[in-house]
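Entry: Exportin-2
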Amino acid sequence: MDVSAETLQTLSQCFLQTLSPDAGPRRSAESYLSTAADSPGYALALLRLLSDPSVPDPVRVASAVHFKNLLRSRWSPSDDHPPISAAERDQIKSLLVRLLLDASSSSPLVQSQLSESLSLVGRHDFPSNWPSLLPELVASLHSSNNYPAINGILGAANSIFKKFRSVDTNDVRRDLKYCLDGFAAPLLEVFLRTSRLISTAGPASPPEAVKPLFESQRLCCRIFYSLNFIDLPEYFEDHMKEWMTEFRAYLTTTYPWPTIGPVVDDLRAAVCENLGLYMEKYEEDFRDYLKDFASSVWELLRSASPPDQLAVTAIRFLTKVSTSVHHSLFSSPDVLGPICTGIVVPNVRMREEDEEMFESNYVEYVRRDVEGSDVDTRRRIACELLKGIAGNYRDQVKAIVSTQIEGMLTAYVANPAVNWREMDCAIYLVVALAHKKGGGAVASSDLVDVEGFFLRVVVPELQSRDANVVPVLKADALKFFIVFRSQIPKHVALSLLPDVVQLLALENNVVHSYAASCIEKLLLVKDEGGALRFTPADVAPRLPTLIPALYNALKFPDSQENQYVMKCIMRVLGFADIGVDMAGSCITGLTLVLDEVCKNPRNPVFNHYLFEAVAALIRRSCERDPAIVAVFEASLFPVLQTILTADVREFWPYTFQIFAQLVEVHAPPLPPSYMHLFELLLLEETWKRPEVVPALVRLLRAYLRKSPHELNQEGRLDRVIDIFNRLITSSKTESLGFYIMNTLIENLGWDMISSKAGKIWTLIFVRLQSHQARGFVKSLIIFMSLFLVKHGPAALVDSINLVQANVFSGILTQFWISNLELITGFIEWKLTAVASTRLICESPALLDGSMTVIWGKMLDSIVKLLARPEEDRVEDEPEVPDIGENVGYAATFVRLYNAGKKEEDPLGEIKDPREYLVKSLMTLSVHSPGRYPKIIQNSLDQQNQEALLQLCTAYNCTIV
C-alpha cells in the first residue's frame, strides 16, 4: 500500500476530530472524509492507517469502523455512491486476509472490524468472485500455531458462513457444498487439535495462554452451527461422535482457571445452541446422545449459577427436549421436581441485575417485561421450559408449582420486607404461564383461580398506601391486572380505577408506566360479541383526577417522554367525552409537551402518540362542538408554525395531518391564515419531500372538500391538476394522485370541471401508454366510475372522446372490462359496480347495436364482480394500530389514525348494487323485449349466467 505520510497524517487528524465532543470540528472532519471517500485509493489508505502500529488505537478503531462502512456502501454498484474500482477491490481482498492473520499488529477491536469487513466483501464476492479466499483461510489454519491469528481466521469464516443461517435456495446450497468440501475437515482438525491443547494444559498454565484456546473452540462451534443449519451434512454425520464427545466434555469438565470463566461459559452456550439445533432438526440422528446431554445440561444448570447467555441457551435446549417425542426423559418425579424447583424457580426469581434495570433503565425493563421482548431472558425461557414440560405432565407440574407459589406467598406474608422477591416470583409465574387466546385476552390460568388470586393477592398491593412497600410489587400487581384484564369483572375493575390513578403519582418510572398501560389496556377490553366493556360514561367520573395525573406523570425525571403515559393520554382523549373546559386545558398541556419535544425530537414512538393525542382531542371535541375550534387554533397554531418555519422535518407529516383536521372542523369560509397555507400547499417546492407527500395529499383533499369554489381563483385548479400529474408519474405516488382527483370530482360541479376534463384525461392516458400496472389501472377504473356517478355517462364518454375520437371504447375493452373484477374495498366495489351498470343501461354509446359484444363482456365482468365472496372484497382495517419501536421519521410516512377521515360513500342512496343491477336490466329490457336474454346467453360464461339468474330470482326481477 503506497500511501504518502502526509495523507496518513491528514486522515489521522480527521479521525481524531470525529471523536471530538465539539460539534464544529467533528462535522468538519466528517465532511472531509465524506468527500475523500470518492477519491481513488481511499479505501487502501484506510487499510494502511488502521494497520500501522504507531497510530493511536482510537484512530485505528475509528478508521476500521469507517472502512467497514465504506465497504458496505461502495463495494457493489449503487445509485448513491460510486463503487470502489475493480483493481482496488482485488488489492483489498488480498490485504484483508493478511491483516487478519497478523493479529499481533492490531487490537481486538480492530480485528473485529476487519473480520466484519471481510464478511461484507464475502457476501458479495464469495465464492464465485473470490475463489482464493477459502483455500487461503484453510492453508493459514494448517500452517499457524498463533491462536490470535487462528481466531482471526475462524472469526472471518464465521462471519462469512452466517449467510447459511438465513435463506435456503439452490444458490445458497451450492455455495454451502463448496464450503463444506473445503472447510468441514479442516474445521474438525483444528477443533480436535485445540481440544488436546486444552486437555493437556494444567492449573499452572497461565490463563492468558489458554483463553484464546477456548475462544477458538467457541468460534468453531459457531461455524458448526452455520454449516449444519440448512441440512445435516454427510461429513458431520460421519464424524458426529467426535464432535459430540468434545461438546459433552465442555459441559461436564471443571476448569482450573477462574479468571477465564466468561470465555468458558460462552463456549458452553455455543455448544448448547448446537445441541438445540440438532434437537430441533436432526432428532433421529441425535437421539443416541440425547439422554446424556439432557442430564449434563440440567446438572450444569443446577450445580452453578450460569450467566444469562448460557442459562438461556441451556434451558432452551431442555425446552426443545420437553416438547419432543423424547419428553419421557422428564416423566420421573425425581426429574420433574428438581427441574421445577432447582432450575425453573431459581431462574424466575428476580436477581440483582433485574433490580438494577428496574431502578435505572425503566424503558428496557418495561420493554422486556410487558411487551414480550424478554424471550431471550432467563426468566422468560425458564417459564417456557415449564410450559414445555406441562404440555405432557400438566397435573404433576401444576401440583409442584402451585405448592411452590403458595409457599412463596406464605413466606412473603411472614416477612414482607425481607421476602418480597418470593411474592414477585409467585406473580411472575402465574402471569407467565397464563393461557392466551386471540386478541391478547387471557383466558385462564391452570395454576390459580384468577379472580380469587387477584382479590386475595393483587388487590391489596394495588390499594396499599404504605410508603415502604417495594415498588416492584406494585409493578407486579399492575402487570397481573393488565394481563388478566379480561377476567376481572367490570365492577371490580371500575372500583380499582382510583387506585391505579393513584399509582400514576408514584415517582418510580416502571410503576407509573405500568399504571398508564393498565388504564390504556382496560379501555380496549371487549366482551363477547365485540362490544367494548367500558363506556365513556364509566370513565367520566374519573376524568378530573385521571387526566391531571397523566400529565403530572410526564414531569417525573426520565419520564418527560414516557411513551406509555402518552399512549394512555391518547387513548383516554380518544375514548372519553371531554367537556369544553377540560378540552381547553388538555390541548394546552399537549401543546406545552409538543413545544418542548420540537427542540430535540428523540423518541419517535412518544412523539407519534403525542400527535395521535392531539388528533384524538380534535376529533372528539371539535367535531362535536365547533365553538371550541378557536381555542384549539390559539394553542396549536404557534407551535405548528414553529415546526414549519424552524424546519423540524421529523414533524412535517404529522403537522399537515393536524392542519387537515382543523380545516375540516372549521366552518366556511376559511380565514386568511388557512388560505395562506393553501397557497403554500399549491407551490411545486412543497411537494419535493417524498416523506411528506401523503400528508400533503391529506391536507389538499381537506381544502378541496371545504373550499371547492376557491379553486376558481388565481389559477388554483390548474395547480391542483399539475400536482395530480406530478404524483401519477411515479408508481410510488400514483394512488395518492388519484385520491386528489377523486376528491376534486366529488366536490366540483360540472361547470368548473368540464373545461379541465380534457387535460385531465390527456395526462392520465399519457401515463397509461407507458405504465399499465395493476394498481394504476384499478385507480383509473375507480376514478372513471366516480366521474360517471357524479356527472353522468354522457359526460364521461364525451369528455374522454374529446382526447381522441372513439378512444373510450378502447379504454373500456382494454382496461375497464378486463380489470373490473380486481376492485376491492366495499365502497370501491359498490361504486364501480353501480357505475358499470349505469354505463350499460344508460349510455347511448353502449346501447348502440354495434356495441353488442362489448355490452355483453361488460355485463359478464359486472356479474363476476358482484358474485365474488364477501371476504374477497372487504378490506379490514385495524381498530387502533399499535406503533412499533421501529417507527422512524423521514424514511416513511406514518399515518395518524385519529386524524384520518373515513371515506364517505358517494352512493349512499343505493344500498345493494346487486339489486340495482338486476332492476336496471329489467327496466332496460322492457324497451327491447327479447334482445338482452339473447346477448346474455351468448356473452356470459355459464357460471355468470347462473349467478345472474340467481340474482334475478332473489330480487324478483325478470329480464324480458
